[in-house]
TrEMBL record:
A Pfam family: PIG-L
Listed InterPro entries: GlcNAc_PI_deacetylase-related (IPR003737)
Source species, domain of life: Bacteria
Name of this protein: PIG-L family deacetylase
Length: 252
């Protein structure tokens, strides 16, 4: 599978807003997902994925005093090849600034947050999966609870990071959870491809949802695209709409 295109984003019949199974996903508490005292590690393929995947969970864990570690696999500088407005050189500076602002909007403790930047290149992660696995494994501990993108999410980078993170967590003896991003925007006919038996729903209050949405909008370089030359927004309107749902879903 692959993410829906910008033109397809206007279609209502996507999994996230049509699948009846969503209503029946068991609810999980933050304490059950991440036991007291455990460190949570969020592995993001690109800057912004940590907010899109689990910006609500990050807020809840931070408020409970859990130690947090973020791993940004790429710096996002090669995310928009061919762009006239967002060259690789400009994004190499801008994307890191966007990430700092987004995490600040989430209310995370920037002075104590452990944040690792991998420096890998966008759109090449599948070709460097073994190296990526070894890189991630260096930063994991046996008692960690790890979150990363689902290995069948539908984009090469997300899938590669999901596989590498799962393998690294296995090597380290850490608990691993997957978070789908683009899979929710597959056509409704593909809903049976979702592993519903593994899905758990983490409820978010109104304030947590609002902060998550506000943080997502910090990624200004990802919001508009360049329609005149065929570059769609990397954070399309339909994804931003889904960010306002009062829950996040994790595959355990």
């Amino acid at each position: 599978m692959k993410p829906v295109s910008l033109s397809e984003s206007s279609l209502p019949a996507q999994i996230w807003n049509s699948a009846l199974q969503l209503d029946n996903i068991p609810v999980i508490s933050t304490q059950s997902l991440v036991p007291p005292g455990a460190r949570a590690v969020v592995i993001a393929p690109h800057p912004g994925d940590e907010v899109v995947t689990c910006g609500g969970l990050l807020q809840l864990l931070s408020s409970m005093g859990h130690p947090l570690q973020l791993i940004s696999v790429t710096d996002g500088s090669a995310s928009q090849p061919g762009s006239q407005q967002w060259s690789e050189k400009r994004l190499s500076v801008f994307r890191s600034q966007e990430s700092v602002e987004a995490l600040r909007r989430l209310g995370l403790p920037m002075h104590s947050l452990k944040w690792i930047r991998g420096g890998f290149t966008d759109n090449t992660l599948a070709e460097h999966e073994l190296e990526l696995t070894r890189f991630i494994a260096r930063y994991l501990r046996p008692a960690d609870v790890v979150f990363s993108t689902w290995a069948a999410d539908g984009t090469r980078d997300h899938d590669a990071v999901g596989r590498a993170s799962a393998q690294a967590a296995s090597v380290a003896g850490a608990t691993f959870n997957e978070v789908p991003v683009w899979a929710w925007h597959w056509p409704a006919r593909d809903r049976e491809l979702i592993p519903w038996h593994r899905a758990r729903k983490l409820r978010l209050d109104t304030w947590t949802v609002a902060r998550k949405s506000h943080a997502t909008h910090a990624y200004a370089s990802q919001l508009d695209g360049e329609p005149a030359i065929g570059i769609a927004p990397l954070l399309p309107r339909i994804l931003l709409e889904r960010m306002r749902l009062p829950y996040e879903i994790v595959f355990v």
